[in-house]
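Can anyone check this?
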Amino acid sequence: MRTAEELASHEEHLAPLVAAGKLRLTVALSRAAPRRRVNDAMLEPEHAAELWQLLRGTDEGGAAGHVYVCGRTTLANTVIDALRAIIVRRVGDDAARAVLYRLVGEGRLLMEIFTTYGGAQFEEAKTRVTASELAARNNERDGYWMAISGRVYDVTEFGHIHPGGLKIIQSYAGMDATYAYQVIQHHANPEVDAMLGMYERGVLREPDFGQVWGVALSDRGLRFVPLRDAYRAWTDLLYMVVEMENGIANDLRMRHEPFTDAESPGHVMLTPIKAQRLGQTHSRLVDDYLPLVLGDPLDALWRMTLGVLGHQRLDAGWMRATMDAVRAAPETKACASASARLDRSLRMREATADFASRFTPFCDRLAHEDGRVLAELKESLCRGARVFETHERDTTRHGQELLDALASIPPAIEAFNARVAAAVATLPGASSLDVTDAVEPPSFTIAADVGLGHGSNAERCPRRID
């Protein structure tokens, strides 16, 4: 509580419980002398010892007590941080998470969170997170962040106590998850919506592009494109790749998780059904996911980027022609056939003999390459997004960086196909493949003063791309 007056307003309800010995009341008043916060009271040695006894289960000699936190997000964060500090003192940092997760799983840590709108002035003071920064936060190393209604949340810890499981959180990390959040009506539930405040990191930053615009070549001819729309085209494709990366990563995790009756958390191994599932994941990546990015969307982004840069000398059809050449290469066909060839190898009579040594190297390499190509594709798009985010209205003066980012994609896909084709050739019964020369990315040069047309400055409006 904040003041003695607030405490007095609850006295008629609390005093009888204290008198009957049913309630032990410890008060921390944050705005009255002597000032003390709730975490200060919790961390006092006597109180910390009692709380630790309540947190421990009966199988550990504890009281298996319940913790109920009711208040604003700031209070909830303060209480949880204090509980974590108490647990860390006893069992160490690594084990502390497991204790908290167990409390939630056993229904012994309950929270009722509410919040109020603080006003636009508080939004200005929040940390600004760019789309490229958000996209990097979709893994165990960097954490799991997501954007909802323009605000960015670090849900790394929450994922382990999410009622729907961690995989749902991982599926929407690193991207704008507003639609997924609203489609299940979380935004209409005040308790769920208020809990988000406990994990807020900042707000999604929209670069300032002013009124800068250009002309891009589309399937319907020339059209005016604000620089803001060009940036959103980059981030839309970026978020699409992030979502693919999340989906493939979730599928690949089963390689290191118990998947059959013969496995346990302490004993995980590669089994024939796991190998088959890994092959199916690869097939879904190359047959379903990658074409959604590397076909018309990538070609459209190339054309739009050329248009808003106002550089008519470059070939608007280069991306489509280059990707068509990559798709026609024999390594691409071998890469696409990896799942079918793996199935055939698994059905061979000798496949059951020394299964792990025969198939583990290939399956692990296939999983690695699938994750690697999506990471490289994401990084190429992040490079372009960072150009917009860094230079804003002056983005077009750094157009070479945008073109370099896009031009790096075909060689990355070609290298991926070649690496997987080489791995396929090692499968039992697989025939070797011819290796062709790699396609080198083109070298583009853009004049430093290339700009966008805006306002009535018609002489800067780029001409039609030849």
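Reply from J.R.: I decoded it. Residues 172 and 180 are 8 Å apart (CA to CA).
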